[in-house]
Amino acid sequence: MTLAKDIIALARRGVGVLANNLLALDGSAKLPAVDGSQLTGLLKGGATVTLTGTAVDVTGIPATAKRITIALDNLSLSGTAHALLQLGTSSGVENTGYVSDASISTTGSGGSGGNQTSGFWAGWAGGAAVVSSSILTLVKGSGNKWIASLAGGVDNGSSVYYGFVSGGNKLLGGVLDRIRLTSTNGTDTFDLGTATVYWE
Length: 200
Fold this sequence. Notes:
The chain is mostly beta strands. 5% of the residues lie in helices and 49% in strands.
């Protein structure tokens, strides 16, 4: 009988955007404007950019973003520098104050890694023939601090694959509204790849 009572109570609710109303799609099959501040786990954004030149910026990230996911596909740089992600505010992109460390497992030669203070590791390079794909996740901590995590793999053109991981954090001087993909030396250019950016 509980189900029957619930159905009756539901039928008595009006359609609208006020408290206890039922939502209905409008004539364009869209939800009406409502306060979605309690919704979680919804991906927004979804901008895909082609990686070219020495740096690629993605702007317009909303101040409400708590998590940013960046999918890097077939990333390649013209030289031996590695890919780097930098964060920015309305004042510009910040290139200092990062705590980032990477570890890479290379086939037949153990592994290597490195620290980085000018950005977060975003992809492992090593020459134009080396292509990497990875997922970089940023999660907002307290204040304007962002925590980064990276996992990816590399193809050196000879069907030899190896993986890399990285993590770190960065305290921004303001509210995050942009990211920049560049290289560790700032001069190598992207010659292949795309980046798809989501935020929630």
